[in-house]
Design goal:
Number of domains of chain B: 1
Shape of chain B: globular
Radius of gyration of chain A: 20 Å
Distance between the termini of chain B: 49 Å
Number of helices of chain A: 16
Strand content of chain A: under 5%
Distance between the termini of chain A: 27 Å
Number of strands of chain A: 4
Structural class of chain A: mainly alpha
Helix content of chain A: over 70%
Radius of gyration of chain B: 19 Å
Largest sheet of chain B: 2 strands, antiparallel
Number of strands of chain B: 2
Structural class of chain B: mainly alpha
Order of helices and strands of chain B: HHHHEEHHHHHHH
Number of helices of chain B: 11
Strand content of chain B: under 5%
Strand order of the largest sheet of chain B: 1-2
Helix content of chain B: over 70%
Oligomer: heterodimer
Chain lengths: 348, 303
């Protein structure tokens, strides 16, 4: 019950934010709540499933580019190409761009592309029982490869600058404050839905087996379950959440570029969840907000300090508070035995 | 320049890149094989070795400075590695994913520290006079191909280090203990081996070798705060492809990946070769998920 109460409180505070927050902070909050959707996915695969992914940025990018491609096509003059393609000397629209002119296709792609990519990767790697640190390294290599690839294909992807310069989305003018407010409400609704959905997944039989896979994959096998589909589905769900998050952030910020999802941003996404508490969905949301607001404030006031601080967060959270801020807050309520069990669970 | 010299030159580049990958991956493979520790700050040991070399060269001049730099880089990074092991890694024993995150934090701090001290732009280390020439193979099929002496030096250095580590593992008392802990930590512990000391020695040796790699790297590219980042992902792939606990596997994987990247770059761009490399590694894992040289073991749970 306490978790539902926490979500309710958070939703009320966030829903009233337009009443008391200045415009700039409100736009930050909206973007960070969109990022929290991705963090829920990390909490599902890492907290519940024990799968550490350092490449969630790739799925974020798939969602972001899917929506951005639509906005580029919708924003271009009829019969002409998006601006960056003209600058690169393209004269014909690449065939794989064409379907994105339909809003329905683009929105479907936000869900389907990350789900497919995540499921295929997870299937290929987990099928051969490659787990743990190996999987983390593979996903990091994926983030590196995806970023260099997108940067190099400038005529198709906008390269290092990414896709930007959108004017309107689905008939709404993006600069309007009413559009921004609407986007904020949509983000909040998506986050609440994602929270309830992931929570339901965790409480279901599926979630119990996923948890069992985390704590003793071989024992699960001996009990007659194949862990593979559970891990693949969980990873695909996290991929979809990352994709949706990418689409929302792209709409919100008006840009998607490799600087938002490369190796470094991808691993930073993990620290949001680690700081909040990897086993708590609420912690994932709060951690995302804390790190991102901290980054915004500190890196504008003391630009040199931010990397030291985020580095220290990585070190301190892992050594002192493996269950994150939420773990620290609930510390007093738990027996030493439960803490030891939690530490053992965090071990792998 | 004929076709064959182009290919041979690229092949040679591949082998010299492989040498640096090998030096970077050796330490990773050693500590991951032995302690199941993923050191994400390993790339910053390269960076630190590079800067230490730069400082030595500025202090002692081009010629002796570089020789001193090799020693300083090795000792300095080994000491830092030992410090990290005692203060951080040791506390996270048995939690590989958490070590990964914590050492990433260390790597961010080191990068920012380097940026604050040396500035965001790289520093250059000029090769000492005894390494500034080129070797050319006139009179053979490869006339016209000239190989910079520094690249030969890097390959020789990697060979010496690999041989040295091989000798340590195979012939010394420390090596015996390392093999014992690697084979079965609990039994080695029960028989009186100080496993913590073995961990410490191996970790320090591994970071020291990375420092040497950074020293070597400083000869062919400027030392920047993020220089380690560009090598570390490949070094990890070498460890994955090579398999745990085998120098031969690490060597084979380093050569394979170094030559693959250089070879692919003849036909396509750097970015395509990165994507191809990742696809090939994933495809490779379908056949040998435990790497080229895997240990056979009847244990159920392995790292």
């Amino acid at each position: 019950m306490r978790k539902e109460l926490g979500l309710g409180l958070l939703l009320i505070v966030a829903a009233c934010a337009p009443l008391y927050l200045p415009a700039y902070e409100l736009s930050l909050l909206g973007r960070f709540l969109a990022l929290a959707v991705l963090a829920l996915g990390i909490s599902l695969i890492w907290g519940t499933g024990g799968i550490l992914s350092l490449g969630q940025g790739v799925f974020f990018a798939l969602g972001g580019y899917a929506i951005a491609m639509h906005l580029k096509l919708a924003g271009a003059d009829p019969g002409s190409l998006p601006d960056f393609m003209q600058w690169s000397g393209l004269t014909v629209l690449p065939s794989w761009w064409a379907p994105f002119q339909y809003p329905a296709v683009a929105i479907a792609a936000v869900f389907v592309l990350p789900a497919l990519a995540a499921a295929i990767l997870a299937y290929l790697v987990f099928r051969r029982r490659v787990t743990g640190a190996y999987f983390a390294i593979i996903t990091q290599a994926l983030a590196l490869a995806a970023t260099t690839f997108i940067i190099s294909q400038q005529q198709f992807t906008g390269g290092f600058n990414g896709l930007t310069g959108f004017t309107s989305a689905f008939g709404f003018t993006l600069g309007d404050s009413s559009t921004q407010l609407g986007l904020y409400w949509i983000t909040l609704a998506v986050l609440a839905l994602a929270f309830v959905g992931v929570r339901a997944l965790q409480m279901s039989a599926f979630g119990k087996i996923l948890l069992a896979v985390r704590d003793g994959e071989n024992r699960v096998r001996f009990l007659g379950y194949d862990p593979l589909p559970f891990k693949v589905i969980a990873f695909a769900v996290a991929g979809v959440l990352a994709g949706v998050s990418g689409a929302l952030v792209t709409l919100d910020l008006g840009v998607i570029s490799p600087a938002m999802f490369g190796v470094v941003p991808s691993i930073e996404m993990v620290i949001w969840v680690a700081l909040g508490g990897r086993n708590s969905l609420l912690g994932a949301i709060l951690g995302t907000l804390a790190v991102n607001f901290g980054k915004d404030w500190i890196s504008s006031a003391f630009p040199d300090l931010w990397l030291f601080i985020v580095g220290a967060i990585f070190v301190l959270v892992v050594t002192i508070a493996p269950q994150g801020l939420v773990g620290l807050l609930t510390f007093s309520r738990r027996t030493p035995r439960a803490i030891a069990a939690a530490a053992a669970a965090a071990a792998e | 320049m004929s076709e064959s010299t182009l290919v041979a030159g690229q092949l040679f580049n591949g082998i010299s890149v492989a040498s640096i990958l090998l030096l970077a991956a050796l330490g990773l493979a050693l500590s991951f094989g032995l302690m199941r520790v993923i050191n994400m700050a390993h790339g910053e040991m390269l960076m630190m070795g590079g800067y230490l070399t730069y400082l030595s060269v500025s202090a002692f001049g081009k010629s002796t400075g570089f020789a001193v730099g090799l020693v300083v880089a090795f000792v300095g990074t080994a000491l830092f590695g030992a410090f990290m092991e005692v203060t951080l890694i040791r506390r996270l024993y048995g939690r590989p994913l958490d070590t990964l995150l914590a050492t990433w934090g260390v790597s961010l701090i080191l990068q920012q520290a380097a940026r604050s001290i040396f500035g965001p732009i790289g520093v250059e280390v000029t090769a000492p006079p005894w390494l500034s020439g080129t070797l050319s193979l006139g009179g053979t099929a490869l006339t016209g191909l000239s190989i910079p002496a520094v690249r030969v030096f890097i390959i020789v250095l990697a060979a010496i280090v690999l041989g040295g580590v091989g000798l340590i593992i195979a012939r010394t008392r420390l090596g015996l203990l390392v093999r014992a802990v690697h084979a079965n930590r609990a039994i080695a512990d029960a028989l009186g081996t100080n496993t913590r000391a073995v961990d410490l020695a191996v970790f320090a040796l591994g970071t020291g070798i990375a420092g040497l790699a950074g020293s070597a790297l400083s000869l062919i590219s400027p030392v920047t705060p993020t220089v380690g980042q560009s090598y570390i992902v490949y070094a990890f792939l070498v460890v994955i492809v090579g398999g745990l606990g085998s120098l031969a596997g690490t060597l084979a994987a380093a050569v394979l990946i170094g030559v693959f990247s250089a070879g692919a770059q003849i036909f396509t761009s750097q970015s395509f070769s990165d994507v191809l490399l990742l696809l090939c590694v994933i495809a490779f894992m379908q056949f040998r998920p435990r790497g080229i040289v895997s240990q056979s073991s009847r244990a159920l749970e392995e790292g």
